[in-house]
Amino acid sequence: MRRITRLSRFNIASLALGLAFLYLPILILVIYSFNASRLVTVWGGWSLRWYHEFFNDRAMIEAAWMSLRVAVSSATIATLLGTLAAVALSRGERFRGRTLFSGMLYAPLVMPEVITGLSLLLLFVALNAERGFWTVTIAHTTLTMCFVAVVVQSRLGSLDRSLEEAAMDLGCDPVRAFISVTLPLIAPAIAAGWMLAFTLSLDDLVIASFTTGPGSATLPIRIYSEVRLGVKPEINAICTLVIALIAVVIVIASLASKLSSSQGESAAPL
Amino acid sequence: MTDELPRTSTASNAAGGDPYPAAGQPLLRIEGVTRTFGTFRAVDGVSLDIKAGEFFALLGPSGCGKTTLLRMLAGFEAPDEGRILLGGKDIAQALPHERPINMMFQNYALFPHLSVRDNIAFGLKRAGMPRAEIAIRVAEMVALVKLEGLEKRKPDQLSGGQRQRVALARALARRPQLLLLDEPLAALDKKLRESTQGELMELQRRLGMTFIIVTHDQEEAMTMADRIGVMKAGKLAQVASPRELYEAPRSRWIAEFVGDINLFDGESKLRDGHRLVIGTRDAGALVVAEPREPVGAGRLAVAIRPEKVKLSRRGPVSEAGRETAINRLDGVIADICYLGGTTTYKVKLDTGGTVQASVANSARIDVDAYSLNQHVVAWFTPDDCVVLPS
Known about the structure:
The complex is a heterodimer of chains A (270) and B (390).
Chain A: H1 2-5, H2 9-32, H3 49-56, H4 58-91, H5 98-110, H6 113-126, H7 133-157, H8 161-169, H9 174-202, H10 206-211, H11 219-228, H12 233-263
Helix pairs in contact in A: 2-12, 3-12, 4-7, 4-9, 4-11, 5-7, 7-9, 8-9, 9-12
Chain B: E1 26-37, E2 40-51, E3 55-59, H1 66-74, E4 81-86, E5 89-90, E6 101-104, H2 116-126, H3 131-144, H4 160-173, E7 178-182, H5 190-207, E8 210-215, H6 218-224, E9 227-232, E10 235-240, H7 242-247, H8 252-257, E11 262-272, E12 275-280, E13 284-289, E14 299-304, E15 310-312, E16 327-338, E17 342-349, E18 354-360, E19 375-380, E20 386-389
Parallel strand pairs in B: 3-8, 3-9, 6-7, 7-8
Antiparallel strand pairs in B: 1-2, 1-4, 4-5, 9-10, 11-12, 11-14, 12-13, 14-20, 15-19, 16-17, 16-19, 17-18
Helix pairs in contact in B: 2-3, 2-4, 3-4
């Protein structure tokens, strides 16, 4: 027991190094976002100046607002479609081409984003669609739907089929049985899937830059173009806010997944 | 426990169906039901009548099709052929929620997100019962299965035995015409299983409900059921009362499946009035009573239950008024298995075979107990033998 629970010095050192590797850059960014100095690398004392600057930067606020709208709507659509796909995959056991369908659903997980972005751009151009909010939203839905499907499907897979049968036995038609028994039990996984989709959409640069149009830049696109002209301390402040938002979402998502696992037999993978 | 539940169909009856058929009237008729999965015939031309108020057990080894048959009654599987008539109406293709039948699942299938109360009320809400009546019915059910005080618990806060009771209460709450129980006691430990068996029987009698239970445990089936249907490879091998099944099994397979038995293969030699002499390889010539249904010539098996084989040191002990023709086998004790209430002796016969004899331990200190390698005489009467086609 002792050997397993106690960490050796080597373990502690490697853990510290690993955590530092992951979080030191972010920590430095957060600290410098409170820097009073105009120069990014010189410390000039604590200040909220750059947060103030950000909230007065209309273009940046607009980009942030655009990003939030895209993230919320694409996550919502992706959750709906991803959940339906997961239900079809885990419940319709006998339909033809099931393996092909699941393979195709999961392909975007491993597809390079450049390819997804480019192919969507070609599609939108071919359809002569005006590029802007809706094209980015559709593109992000395509990207995040498969993540939702994976999360929800694993929860459905661990769910006992006889629960739905019991509901039908007690007077539910199949649709009612799904709504009154299955849905409440997979709700935490659906919520976790939504939040995953939300964060994926919020920080996507590649696909968004392929599919957006003039005048509707998302926050990552805006930040990227600003940084190319030189890093302003204001960027640090924006990034800190984004980190805070994502951290909150991730915490809620993991709590939801924990709730899901305490209700059922096994947890959603998050 | 509450008073006897009203059994007449009222406006609020959740099952909403026809009044219950009187006890003894036919309730369920299964006609030539077949279900195939691919090329595998899980249930193969089963026909069966079940009377109202009956406690019926489907018994068989795993994979014999008993659960598939039960699932067809519940509506989770549709038969490929045949009809299922409930009160004269064919329900073979009806969906589960359209049948006045409820099922208790093997793993209980309690809804983990609902409390005990909501689990029991689930089917009543779906039936559109008014709230006040639901509360009364739930309280009734909780009292019936002795779960008072646990109404607000979630299933994962209950013990195995308590969960089993919730599942039972939930299935009974709608007052179905027919209750199906899929291995209801399999997950309980032995002591709890035995007491629950008794409670289930008492409940069934009190509610006058028709129960069909699926089990692989022959003791459970024998204890609880009025009639037992033994299934083998998708077919009903025998439908009989527990006693008939044990004392007059129809085939060698059933004889071996239900309880312990000694079997001697042989051939019919001669007929003497209502006696038959059968020459066996392992036990010599045995005199048996002629079976009611004539068995064909050729290879036969003589079957005798271990508790009907008597042992003594010198020879058969004659009892006044009992059978005079007696089968006598000489041998030595080869194995002793003490089981508490009884002791099973394995006797190696001089003729080559072995016979098992089960002897009641009727005295605490038994000076007459047999010991290993002791010479004994095993004997039994012709009437205690069953002749089976080999």
